[in-house]
């Protein structure tokens, strides 16, 4: 990750809870991949399930069910 994540990330959100995306950190292909999935500033993300070892995270964004790796979830700062 190019920038250090400061604050609460998507990885810290409990299963069943929702969070609003504050901003994305990092750059390059990971950030582009996250944005291509529709996870952008202001989007509401609901964590549906987390694999036993924490990778992947299954989330719902804008009505779509998606899977994120831990490294991607750490790039999403939430409120």
What's the short version?
Helix content is 15%, strand content 34%. By secondary structure, it is of the alpha+beta class. The chain has a five-stranded antiparallel β-sheet with strand order 4-3-2-1-5.
Would you kindly provide a written description of the structure presented here, covering whatever features stand out?
- The protein has 79 residues and is α+β, with helices and mostly antiparallel strands.
- The chain has one domain (10-78): SH3 type barrels (Roll), CATH 2.30.30.
- Helices cover 15% and strands 34% of the residues.
- The chain has two helices and five strands; from the N terminus they run E-H-E-E-E-H-E.
- The chain has helices at 29-36, 70-73, and strands at 18-24, 44-50, 57-61, 64-68, 76-78.
- Strands 4-3-2-1-5 form a five-stranded antiparallel β-sheet.
- A hairpin with a 6-residue loop joins strand 2 and strand 3 (57-61).
- The longest helix is centred in the middle third of the chain and has 8 residues, at 29-36.
- The relative contact order is 0.32.
Count of DSSP-assigned helices: 2
- Helix/sheet category: alpha+beta
Distance between the termini: 20 Å
Please, what is the CATH homologous superfamily? Ferrous iron transport protein A (FeoA)
Organism: Berryella wangjianweii
Protein name: Ferrous iron transport protein A
GO molecular function: transition metal ion binding
InterPro entries: Fe-transptr_FeoA-like, FeoA, FeoA_core_dom, Transcriptional_repressor_C
């Amino acid at each position: 990750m190019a920038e250090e994540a400061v604050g609460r990330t998507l990885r810290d959100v409990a299963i069943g809870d929702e969070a609003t995306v504050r901003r994305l950190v990092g750059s390059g292909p990971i950030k582009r991949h996250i944005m291509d999935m529709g996870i952008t500033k202001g989007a509401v993300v609901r964590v549906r399930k987390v694999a036993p070892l924490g990778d992947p995270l299954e989330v719902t964004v804008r009505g779509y069910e998606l899977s994120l790796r831990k490294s991607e979830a750490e790039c999403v700062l939430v409120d």
